[in-house]
């Protein structure tokens, strides 16, 4: 599969996130949190917090971090790594391409964590 249309650039302002459901390889919807950092760059991570399986897109975006609303774990949108407990496992990060006013996300590959 290739990159899928997730949203339009105007759908998100800086430090905002939204939930989109993209088509998984098996046809099942895959929840993805598309977020814009403080500099206006787009990021896409799994919407499911690795600690308690709640929606990360419902949390706050601060700088390049998204904070889980339930217990306060923060994840780096660039790497998916938790930088604040209680979460200890990363969330998958998906490559984002901005094509004009379209934000495209490829959920078939994950961005390698450095
Ligand atoms: S459910 Fe996200 S930090 Fe606990």
UniProtKB/TrEMBL annotation:
One of its GO terms (molecular function) is dioxygenase activity. Signal peptide: none annotated. Keywords: 2Fe-2S, Dioxygenase, Iron, Iron-sulfur, Metal-binding, Oxidoreductase. It comes from the Bacteria. This is 3-phenylpropionate/trans-cinnamate dioxygenase ferredoxin subunit. The keyword Iron-sulfur applies. The lineage of its organism: Bacteria, Bacillati, Actinomycetota, Actinomycetes, Micrococcales. The keyword Heme does not apply. Residues 4-105 form the Rieske domain.
């Amino acid at each position: 599969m290739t990159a899928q249309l997730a949203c339009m650039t105007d759908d998100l302002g800086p430090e905002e996130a939204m939930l989109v459901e993209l088509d998984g390889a098996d046809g099942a919807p895959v929840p993805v949190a598309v977020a814009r950092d403080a500099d206006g760059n787009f990021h896409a991570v799994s919407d499911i917090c690795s600690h308690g399986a709640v929606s990360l897109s419902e949390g706050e975006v601060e700088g390049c971090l998204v904070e889980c609303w339930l217990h306060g774990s923060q994840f780096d949108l660039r790497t998916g790594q938790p930088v604040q407990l209680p979460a200890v496992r990363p969330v998958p990060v998906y490559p984002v391409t901005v094509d004009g006013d379209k934000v495209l996300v490829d959920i078939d590959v994950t961005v390698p964590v450095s």
